[in-house]
Structures are given as C-alpha cells and as structure tokens.
Amino acid sequence: MHRRLVVATMLASALLTGCASWFEGSSRPEPTRLAAFNPVQGLAERWSASLGDSGTGGFMPAYHNGNIVAADARGQVREFDATTGRQVRQLDAGRPLTGAVGVSEELLLLGTAKGSLIALDRRTGTVRWEQRLTSLTLEAPVVSGGQVMVRTNDGRITAFGLADGQQRWTYAASQPLLTLRNTGSMTPVGTEALIIGQAGGRIAVLAQESGALLWEATVATARGATELERVTDVTSRPAFDNGQVCAVAYQGRVACFEARSGTLQWARDISSSQGLTLDERNVYVTADDGSVQAFDRSTGRNLWKLDALRYRSVSGPAMLGRFVLVTDQEGYAHLLSNETGAIVGRTRIGADLLATQPQSLGENVLLQGRNGRLAMLTLK
Predict the structure, then answer these.
(1) Is the dihedral of CA 351, 325, 360, 142 positive or negative?
(2) Which residue, 15, 225, 227, 253, could crosslink 267 as a Cys pair with Cβ 3.0–4.6 Å?
(3) Is the pLDDT of residue 375 over 80?
(4) Is residue 163 part of a domain?
C-alpha cells in the first residue's frame, strides 16, 4: 500500500509540472516538414524585446492602458509602450516568480516561487503587501472590481482586496489524483463573473463579488481504464463572446454553453491542452497532435482541419484581424485563413515554445517564448 501511494504521488507531481506531451514519451512522431504555400497575407514583427527565461511558468504579457507588462522567472518585470516597443520601466521583484503578472493602475501582482502573492508599486517596485497562498500559482492573477483573483495548483481560486491584500473569498473544487499543469484557465466577464477551467473536464462560473458558484458544467467525461487514461482537464482559458461560453478539454471534447444558464449547446470530440479562440462565427482549436480545426459556433459542425503543422508543438490559436495565428517549436508564426484553414502567411519570430497562448490585441498579436523572446506581430 505504501509503495502504491508513493508511485501515485510521484505521478501526480510529474503531471503538475508537465504538459500533455508528457504522455507521448520517446515514440512521439517526427514533426511535419513545412511545405511551400501560396503567401496571400503578409505577417511581420512590429517590435520585439528580450526578457529572461520563463522556465515552466505561465508567463503571459499583460496589456494595460497602452502599455505591455511582462515578467520572467528571475523576477524582472519590464513595461513597454505597446505601439513602439520602447521600454518605459524596469523593476526587480527581488525573488523568483512562477507566473505572469496581473496589472492595475498602481500595482503589479505576482506569484512567487515560495507560494506567495506579492503586490508591487507599479512605479517604485516597493512591496505594498504580501499574502501566503495555499500552493504555487502558475498563471496570471486576474485584476477586476477592486480585487485580484488567483488560481493555485491545488485548484483553489482566492480573491484579495487590491488596496489592503485582505482575503475576500475562496472557492475550492475537488481535484482528481492526477492533473495536468495549468498555466491559464481563468476568463473574467466584465466585473461580474469569472469563468474557470477545472480538472476533471469541468468549467465553472463564479460571481466575482462573492465567489459564489453561478453554474458548473461538464465539457468532457473521463474515459479509460487507468488513471492516466482518465485525465481529462480544461487547462486553457474558456472563451466568452455574445452570450456563449466555449471550452476544450485534454483527452475530451470542445463544447459550447449558453452563458447565463450553462446549458450545453453542442460538443465534439477533440483533445487539446493548447486552447481555443472565437470569432463571430467559428470556434478554432489547436489539438494536441498539432492539427488546427474550426467548428461552427451555432451547430458545432466541423468546417475544416489543417494537418500541415502536426507534431510541431503548435500553440493555441489567436485571432489576428480576420486570420487565425499559431506558432510552432521552431519559432515560426503561421497565419491561417479563417474560412479554409489554409496557410496564407508565415514569419520566423525567434521565440521557441510559448509560455502561454498568444494574446490577441485586435490588429496585433502579443506572445512570449520560454526563451524570453517577447514579440508583437501585425499584418502587413
């Protein structure tokens, strides 16, 4: 019995610090070679900067009032003009960090390698307050409505007041024995609701003011005979638009729900720990084998599937204008037609595997590689 407990604990630890590729082992297929394509739309790097390595944390840059704020695992936090890429400020948190930065008008909110949440003065770097968390956090804190909400590796969501750091509420969901590393699973809806992806293939919607559960729904149900086969987690950010919530699960499905009631509208089988994005008509998903697929938002009908990037460690998708953008392990950014999935543009950006999913900023996309490369891409 003791031996089984030790083995289970070791497996759980590996999954918490790994990702979907952990399961593939040495038999993972060779990456698909890039083929020639017909370039229809230009894609260019608007500006770039070099940060420190991201390690295994979910270091996603934050956009706030015309500036980009980005952190690295060493504790360096830098702020850039979003238009020009000019650095306007650099601060040192004075300790290693595990995840991306949350930003308010006055504060930077950061998770530390010792399991704390710290609030730094945005201009001076002075520590305004610090709170001990129940475990490490690997994703960006969400700042909204005068508070900051943090997800920790034990599945808890905790809210603290921005002004004083005092805990306002906490929400705890049951966790399976084995879970995937989660670097980004919270989506705020204004200052009213917070959508969270959960272990076990579920999503939940919480009231931001109180942490009360508004509704919970199942994206995918665990299947398989072993604990590994039954890992079914929503590890990427659910998407919200026009009264609809969509999410995707590893070893599971992509599903869309009515936002107020949580009523399931449709679901289709697909495995993804990379994530999805929406436009006004479609849902776009990067599968764990690197294929990219599009589904009709109303019916769930599969519209197209791109296999040309399979096994290239393809990132989650982001919208760039009317196009879909993904990156791969060799530092290429690929622009896809939203209508057919065909590759219509490509550029090399120098960032390796991304720390988190690319971030859409309208006519620009912002990304941060694990090697510290920060880049703003645009159409040309």
Answers:
(1) negative
(2) 253
(3) yes
(4) yes
Q: What is the phi-psi region of residue 312: left when phi exceeds 0, alpha when psi lies from -120 to 50, beta otherwise?
A: alpha
CATH number of 96's domain: 2.40.128.630
CA distance 319 to 365: 8
Higher-scoring residue by pLDDT: 224, 66: 66
For residue 91 the two structure tokens come to 């601060």
What pLDDT, on the 0 to 100 scale, is given for residue 90? Answer: 96
Collapse the DSSP code of 8 into the 3-class scheme (helix H, G, I; strand E, B; otherwise coil) and give the result. helix
Q: What is the DSSP letter of 82?
A: T
Strand pairing class (116-121; 107-111): antiparallel
Distance CA 15, CA 24 (A): 13
Weakest-pLDDT range from 19-33, 88-102, 206-220: 19-33
Report if residue 134 sits inside a domain. yes
Domain with 163, as residue range(s), is 59-180
Q: Is 351 helix (H, G, I), strand (E, B) or coil?
A: coil
Kindly list the distances between the CA atom of residue 277 and the CA atoms of 3, 75, 193, 290, in Å, as whole numbers in the listed order. 43, 30, 19, 15
* Secondary structure class of 313 (helix, strand, coil): coil
127 falls within a domain: yes
Average pLDDT over the chain, rounded to an integer: 90
Instruction: With CA atoms as reference, report the closest residue to 185 among 156, 159, 218.
Output: 156
The pLDDT value recorded for residue 367 is: 92
Overall average pLDDT of the 347-367 stretch: 85
Give the separation between CA 256 and CA 245, rounded to whole angstroms.
6
Q: What is the pTM of this model?
A: 0.91
Tokens representing 49 are: 């900067």
Q: How many domains does the chain have?
A: 1
Q: Give pLDDT tens digits for 142-175.
A: 999 999 999 999 999 999 999 999 999 999 987 7
Q: Where are the alpha helices (DSSP H) in 185-293?
A: none
Residue 157 located in a structural domain: yes
**Straight-line distance from the first to the last Cα atom of the chain, in angstroms, rounded to the nearest whole number:** 62
